[in-house]
Specification:
Elements: H1 3-13, E1 25-29, E2 32-35, E3 40-43, H2 46-49, H3 58-70, H4 81-92, E4 98-102, H5 105-124, E5 130-134, H6 143-147, H7 152-155, E6 165-168, H8 173-179, E7 184-189, E8 192-193, E9 199-200, H9 203-215, E10 219-223, E11 247-250, E12 261-265, H10 267-270, H11 286-299, H12 302-319, E13 327-333, E14 336-341, H13 346-354, E15 357-358, E16 360-361, E17 366-369, H14 377-390, H15 394-397
Parallel strand pairs: 3-15, 5-6, 5-7, 7-10, 10-11
Antiparallel strand pairs: 1-2, 2-3, 4-12, 8-9, 11-12, 13-14, 14-17, 16-17
Length: 398
Amino acid sequence: MDAQAIIDAEARYLVPTYQRPAVVFAQGEGNYLYDTAGKRYLDFAGGIAVMALGHSDPVWAAAVADGARTLTHVSNLYHTRSHVELAQRLVEHSFADRVFFCNSGAEANEAALKFARKWARTHHGPQKHELLAFEGGFHGRTLGALSLTHKAKYRQPFEPLVPGVTFVPFNDLEATAAAISERTCAVFVEPLQGEGGVHPAAPAFLQGLRRLCDEHHALLVFDEVQCGLGRTGSLWAHQAYGVTPDIMTLAKPLASGLPIGATLVTEAVARAIEPGDHGSTFAAGPLVCSAALTVFDRVNDFDLLERVYTKGEALMEGLRTLPTDHLLEVRGQGLLVGAEFDVPVKLLMQAALEEGLLVINAGERVLRLTPPLTVTLDEIDDALDILARCVNALETEA
């Protein structure tokens, strides 16, 4: 099928949960994608912050091929080596003592929700079941994760959701202190909000959350599905704050394109969980874990992380010089960057696509840039040049 035939077939056969541009991608290499006509696109979407190593990285591809030739899946009823090796890597390089594997960020947050409620019930009784989350926060689209996600457009069509969730303004410690109580079992927060507009947490805010959770015997849960594993220029986004959570959730870049999620917990939380409390048929199969080991070992490198930070600073500085009066603010950490405008960015995204640059949004007026961690300074300059040529598209929205 040619590109238009594929687009037409999708409209006929798929549930219409996405609105996609009229382009069909056929190949990826490095930090570029190619469509069915052979046109090249510089990828500053990165599969929504997934493609940590870029496309078709040869070391990653060799690990996947080797996994396919040796052992792909046996389920979680049996032991496998790469499953344990990946858990060991994550534990030895984080606050955590144990790991639960799943297949996505939403599943990782579902597990965190269940673990928090089981821990609270075990230690404090069934009355301690309430949850705090934050305005602008996004934790996934499954029912439990959606209950922690603030945006009304995502929530309302599927209500009633999981009860007991209260939303508080992000970075507002005073409001959080007023909302938390002895009935609160956990506080869920992204150290750097992604979908909500690329908003970094203030250091005093995360430090205050830790203190409030300790005072009220609640668990602090950091959702690092989008901002974790090198994206901000440190291995974990929360490391820059000097704050340690009780639970952390991971997913997007962990296998650089293959489905995996992880919920990291302290021993105190793990002791509340028993065999049969939770599970997943496909989670942490040998092939996916082999790919994830490759990603982790590549990303967990001081020089790479330092370059991520430096490249992020260059990207943000370049965005601030875009030739437009509509730019309000550029913010972010490392290579999770948002540029907020006073008009919608949809037409700017479309113009950039036509010029061979993929970018995404984080809300109607925020342009989000999440290129592979392997992006070069020259590629950042190329992306900035394209955006500078396309920024006049914003005038149509003005």
